[in-house]
Amino acid sequence: MARRQSVGATLRAEFSAILQPFATKGKSMHIASRQWKLSVGLVLGLLVAFSGITAADQVQSTMQDWLAATKDQGTIPPGTKITMQNWQQ
After folding, report:
1. Cα–Cα distance measured from residue 51 to residue 22, given in angstroms and rounded to the nearest whole number
2. Alpha-carbon gap, residue 61 to 6, rounded angstroms
3. If we measure between CA atoms, which residue out of 24, 48, 19, 20 comes closest to residue 36?
4. Using CA atoms in the order 67, 72, 76, 81, what is the torsion angle rounded to 10 degrees?
5. Which stretches within 20-88 are classed as H helix?
6. For 50-72, what is the mean pLDDT?
7. Integer Cα distance of 34 and 20 in angstroms
8. 33 CB contacts (<8 Å, ≥6 apart)?
9. Which of 33, 56, 59, 75 is the most buried (most CB within 10 A)?
10. 22 and 35 in contact (C-beta within 8 Å)?
């Protein structure tokens, strides 16, 4: 039991040391903790945003490839009848 309490005290001391640079004169550790959480949330939000940009670039690249491959297919002449037998020709 004493071992568990000393580990807890050590962890509290380490977290306090990590948060200490964020604590300024006149501000409590509670405010510093909120600033820390806000900073972490901002970084995670930016990571999610940039991963979405990468996915959009991949979709755009795929669409450009498809457009290049199908640009010379022509159009269907007026009056053409499309049936189940000929729609994939």
Report:
1. 29
2. 56
3. 19
4. -90
5. 29-70
6. 81
7. 13
8. 19
9. 33
10. yes
User: Going by C-beta distance under 8 Å and a sequence separation of 6 or more, which residues neighbour residue 20?
Assistant: 32
Torsion angle defined by CA atoms of residues 68, 72, 73 and 78, in that order, rounded to the nearest 10 degrees? 130
For residue 34, give the amino acid letter. Answer: R
Q: Give the HSE-up count for residue 27: Cα atoms under 13 Å, Cβ half-sphere.
A: 13
Give residue for tokens 């000393």: 6
Residue type for 25, please? Answer: K
Residue 1: what pLDDT? 47
Instruction: State both tokens at 48.
Output: 């999610």
Residue holding tokens 């550790």? 29
